[in-house]
Structure formats: C-alpha cells, structure tokens
Design brief:
single chain; alpha/beta; Rossmann fold; 3 domains; 8-stranded parallel beta sheet; flat
Length: about 575
C-alpha cells in the first residue's frame, strides 16, 4: 500500500471505498456507480472494437460495458491494494475472467506492447478520475503515451500529405546521384565491435561535448545533421553525418560543412540541396522506404536500408547497428524540453531563432509557446526526475524502447539530461569513455566497393512516362472543367449528361493506366492523396449532392496540378541530363 489508506463502504447495495491520501479524502465511485458508468460510456465510440480503462476501481464501468456494449476492454490498474480489495467479491472475479477483458497491472509499458501485438490502431480511452488524485504522474504519462500511440497513424498521413510532392521532387532530382554514388552496403570499415557515440542536438549536449572531444579518436562519432555544426565548432570530427529530412531548409545544418573528412550518410529522398554540401567521394546513400523509390531502384540497384522512426537520430542509431558497433552511446538525445530549451545553444535552429526575436518576442517566450503548442506531457527523466515532453518525442522514445530491446549491442544513454530511454543503461559519458583512455586510436579508414551504373534505362522510362502523363494531364483538365460545369448545372437543377460522360472518360482512362502501369499508380499516390481520401470517405447512399460534386472537382483539379508538376520534374531531369 502507498501513502494512503482504504476505507471500505457499502450503501444501497453498492460497494465503494473512501481513499484517505495526503490530508484529503475521496471515494472511488459516486453513490450511483452505474449511472456514473453510463455517463462515461456515452462518450465512447462504439464503432471501435476496443476501449482502454485506466483504473479498475470496483469494476462498475467495466461491468456496464460488458452488459451494454460489444466493446472489448483493456484495464490498466496501477494499484495492487485496490485490485486486491475488489477481487474479494465473487462478481468482480467474474468480470476479470470475462474473455472480453484484458487486465494489465502496474506496468503501463505493457499496454503499448499489447496494442501492437494485437494490431489495435484505434480505441476509446478513459482514465477513472480518482486515479488522477492517487497517481498524477503515472496517469498523465499514460495519457500522453496513449495519445502518441493513437496519433502515429494520423501523423504518418499528415506527413505524407505535407511532403508528398517534396519527396517526389527529391527522388527525381537526386536520381542523377543514384547512379554515381555508393550505398551504405558498399562501406568497408573497421568499426565492428568498437564504441560509437550518436550525437543529437538536444540541450544536454553542452554537458559532455568537451568529454567527446577528448576521446574522439577512440570512438566512432555518428552525428545527426542537426548537431553537426556544434561538433565542427568544437573541433570534433564526425566520422558520419546522417541526414533524412526532405526539406530544403534542412541543408542549412550542413551549410558550414567545412570539415571535408566527414562522410554524409543520406536518405535517397532527402533534400537534393544537402547532396551538394559534401564532396561526392564522401557521400553514402541509403534506400528510401517510399513505394515509388522501391519501384524505381531496380535501375540503380540496392544501396542498403536504415530504419527510420520519424527522427534522424533513429536512423543514426540504426547506422551504428549496421556498422556493428558496440557499445552504442547516445548524447544530446533529450527528447524533452529541459529548461524550456529545444536544442543546444549554437545550433542552426537556435541561430535562426535569434533573427526572429526582439524585446517583446523573447527567446524564452518563443520556447514557452513551443511547450504550449506541443501538448506538454510529464514523464520520467534521465536522472529520475520528471521532465516535459510531447507526443512527437514520445513516439521516438517508444521506437527506441522497441529497437533497443532487439539490439545485440549494449546501448548506453549518456545524454545526462532529458527523458529516460527505456532499455538503455544510463551512465555519464565520462564514466563510459574513461575506460578507453589507454586504448589505441581507432582505425577510422573507410573504403568503398562500387561502380557507377548505367542510367540509360531509367532515362528511357522517364521519356515513356512523359508521353503517358501528357495524355493523362489532358484528360484530367477536361474532366476538371466538366465537373465544374456539372456542379453549376446541378445547382440550377439542369441535366449534366455530357459533363458526366467526360468525367467518366477520365476515370476509365485513369484507372486503366493505374492498373497497367504500377509506376503511374505510385505517382498517383503522391499527387492525389488528399482527394482520394475525401472521395473514399464519402457515401452515395443519399444520392448525388453538391458536396459530392465539389469533391470530384477537387479530385480532378488535384490530378491536373499533380500531373503537370510531375511533367515539369521529368522535363527538368531530362534537360539537365542532355546538358551534362
């Protein structure tokens, strides 16, 4: 039992308990527990299969769900004493034994494991309010973890929608590099079994960057692009710099890449401007996971793959595993907001921020806004104290937890601040590296075994695609104007047979191309994601409506804009090749 006492109660045939905690008293349930349960369950989406209840109490909410819905239930109970008190009653045991109920005790991390193992992507979620009084830290953290888990799918969709054209542009523009540059599977190195330090740009990097400088010749240094300038400023040579972001502004991290000995390990769909910041002899590509890239890479061959959990640090970690380094050591991986900071002072992000602040819009105000906008969540920190984080960082922490569990090398978090990284040892960097003081410097030589490949087949494909896209673009333009005409006539109660026929012509041609040409289908995914989702979610049960026709107008407009955009990219790529 914790620092509280339980007083068992019974009134009008309902069992209850009064909790005496920190000078306060409250009951686990109201005097009408089933009415209370009814109010709670009314807010659930019964179209979902699962519901998560945090706090079993005496089981009234779970019992009501079992009797009045088809929902399956996950119950998280952090307190053994409350659970033992509830289990004294036969009807409680019956609830627990129900096959629709899964009980998880004390360890909240087991919840995510259960969700992932059972492929549960959506569920209703409720925290029994008295448990917030008893376990505010646990329940606040659980709320954040579940929100982050449920947000993953939405985040992925939003990311795809936001960057779809940028990724496509990068793949086509970067394709000139794919035939010339080696991949990570061409690296020949001496880092197997040697320690690697992964450097992130978190605020805590300042605590141990001097230690890293002292021991830099005895460890493999794998820097994220965000931290690279800080290492350069300290005279630290990164052996590898990892970059994954598709945005052009990401190349700013590499703007001052004045140390030509570092090797850039870059996602094939990253910003094409980042490729230009390093000499081609020091660039290694790894394969993008995007479907369209997978469709095309047969022309230049496998480059090697690295996992990506949404952050450049996750790919840096997988590179250390790829190189078979041991141990793998993190620094600058705060994944939180210590002292209301997001990055170490002196990083490119921080420098850009100073151009945006003044006496009214201060640095502190900006970071405070970031904390508010990021939906702050309190979790356990590196040193055992609570730290603020957000849903995005929580998804990274969950990824690391899962991957560390599956890593044969020892993983040590020497960030000396920020969030606790489950599964890793937590030790100061000096304690980890001082054992290397008498060892010899590492042989950091890297060789490659690759030959440039012929791109004539790829260029011929682009020419064929161009001819096909010119036809599709013309059809989409006609369909767009036809849909606008149909919408206008529909509003005026006029017949639109001619317009519908033109729209159907495009649909038929479009589907035929997509069916016969898988690459064209991949291009469609990148250019029409938003409209396809809108159309797919609509129902025609009520007949044709203005909203339906407006959605089709958007579909054809997005198709026309998308195909025109792809044609411009292909034209530029072919002209650049002809000029070289």
């Amino acid at each position: 039992m914790g620092s509280y006492s339980i007083e068992l109660l019974e009134k009008d045939g309902f069992r209850n308990a009064r909790i005496h905690h920190s000078g306060r008293s409250f009951t686990l349930h109201s005097s009408q527990p089933y009415r209370e349960a009814e109010r709670v369950v009314k807010n659930f989406n019964t179209g979902m299969e699962w519901v998560l209840i945090a706090g079993f109490g005496f089981g009234y909410i779970i019992d009501y769900i079992l009797k009045n819905t088809e929902l399956r239930i996950i119950v998280f109970e952090p307190d053994n004493d409350i659970m033992e008190a509830a289990e004294k009653f036969p009807d409680t045991k019956k609830i627990i034994a129900d096959p629709r109920v899964k009980i998880i005790k004390q360890d909240k991390d087991l919840i995510i494991n259960f969700l992932e193992e059972n492929g549960i992507k959506e569920l209703s979620f409720y925290i029994h309010r008295p448990y917030f009084n008893l376990y505010p830290d646990i329940m606040s953290s659980l709320e954040g973890i579940i929100s982050a888990y449920l947000s993953k799918k939405q985040i992925n969709k939003a990311t795809l929608k936001r960057f779809q054209k940028v990724w496509l542009r990068n793949i086509i523009k970067n394709s000139s590099y794919y035939f010339k540059l080696p991949g990570i599977n061409d690296i020949r190195h001496n880092f197997t079994g040697k320690p690697a330090v992964i450097v992130g740009a978190g605020p805590s990097l300042s605590k141990n960057i001097d230690v890293l400088k002292k021991y830099q010749d005895r460890v493999a240094i794998i820097s994220t692009d965000t931290a690279y300038i800080n290492l350069c400023n300290y005279g630290i040579l990164a052996d590898f710099v990892v970059s994954v972001d598709p945005q052009d502004k990401n190349s700013l991290y590499l703007l001052y890449a004045f140390n030509g000995s570092s090797r850039l390990v870059i996602d094939s769909a990253a910003s094409f401007m980042s490729f230009a910041k390093f000499s081609q002899g020091n660039i290694f590509i790894f394969d993008s996971t995007l479907p369209i890239y997978k469709e095309l890479k047969k022309f230049w061959g496998e480059k090697g793959e690295l996992l990506c959990g949404g952050s450049v640090s996750t790919s840096a970690f997988d590179l250390a595993r790829y190189l078979k380094c041991d141990p793998i050591i993190f620094i600058g991986q705060d994944l939180s907001y210590p002292h209301k900071q997001t990055h170490i002072r002196g990083s490119i992000l921080e420098e850009l921020l100073y151009y945006r602040i003044n006496r009214i819009e201060t640095y502190e105000n900006y970071n405070s806004k970031m904390l508010l906008l990021s939906d702050r969540i309190e979790i356990e920190g590196w040193d055992g104290k609570m730290v603020s984080t957000d849903r995005k960082f929580l998804t990274f922490l969950e990824w690391f937890k899962k991957e560390i569990h599956e890593t044969s090398s020892s993983v040590i978090n020497s960030t000396e601040g920020g969030a606790l990284m489950k599964g890793a040892k937590h030790l100061p960097l000096i304690e980890v590296l001082k054992t290397l003081g008498s060892s010899s410097p590492l042989n950091k030589e890297v060789k490659t075994e690759s030959k440039p490949s012929n791109e004539s087949g790829f260029l011929n494909l682009l020419k064929e695609l161009k001819e096909e896209l010119i036809k599709v673009e013309e059809f989409s333009m006609k369909a767009y104007y036809a849909s606008k005409g149909a919408l206008k006539k529909f509003k005026n109660n006029k017949d639109s047979v001619k317009e519908y026929h033109t729209m159907t012509e495009f649909d038929t041609f479009f589907l035929k191309c997509a069916h016969e040409n898988s690459l064209l289908a991949r291009l469609i995914e990148f250019t029409m994601q938003g409209s396809i989702e809108t159309i797919s979610s609509m129902t025609m049960n009520g007949g044709l409506t203005t909203s339906t026709l407006e959605a089709w107008c958007s579909l054809y407009e997005e198709a026309f804009d998308g195909f025109s955009y792809i044609l411009r990219l292909i034209d530029k790529r072919l002209k650049a090749q002809a000029a070289s």
